[in-house]
Input
Amino acid sequence: MDMHYGKTKVFISKDDVALGKLAASDVADKIRELLDDHAEIRIIFAAAESQMTFLDALAVEKNINWQRIVCFNVDDFYDTKMPEEFTCGHLTRKLLYDKVSPKQVHLIKYNAPDPEEEAMRFESVMRLEGGFDILCQGIGISGHLALNEPFDCDFYDKAWVRVVSLTEHSKTQLREDPNFKALGYIPLKGITMTIPVLMAVRNIYTMVPFSLKRPILEKLFMQKIPTVELPASVLLEADGKLYIDRNSCPQNLLEKESKV
Output
């Protein structure tokens, strides 16, 4: 069945592993296509439990010249005392960058002395690199994209990067994330790319597995116009791809699929 959320095409997989493989195959195909026409491309990646099967699968895709790819992480937590092993940058390094050796990797300095100065530094790097070709992201249980939280985001933000405070929803999600279990606390702040930057990317891929994401996806699929109450609703206007699994999929969509 051909399903869409606004302009975004929706794919339902049986579980998170199948979702990761499908998304990785589609992203890899797009990378190869772009590298046929461009000397170099730029990709934005996210890091979370929901991205792990995708990153694992992408790391073993064949015939990708990673030496012609510049990678950026979309966000990270900010906490000067947090060990590096709990950062988004560390997770993407472990699952992808260290395996494929891209031309260059740009990470947010999670322990920089001043978060506002770090946001400005990261934005200046982004602006020097120019436009982005591919975005690989997830959706949080609060409905956030990257760390752009409900009511604390601007669909017309002039800044490319900003410092944010994590909502209780996001903190709850992190408490359940196995990558954070051993940290013992949840960071209060983060540094993130803004919504206009994400939506300006030419090819957008959004991966959302797991049952804990079903409530926010049910809310999302009921939303018919973009609203800052639900940042992920901007996907209504994005000509991209949304990958969900049978655990995260809203019940009414599963029922529609079963009738086909």
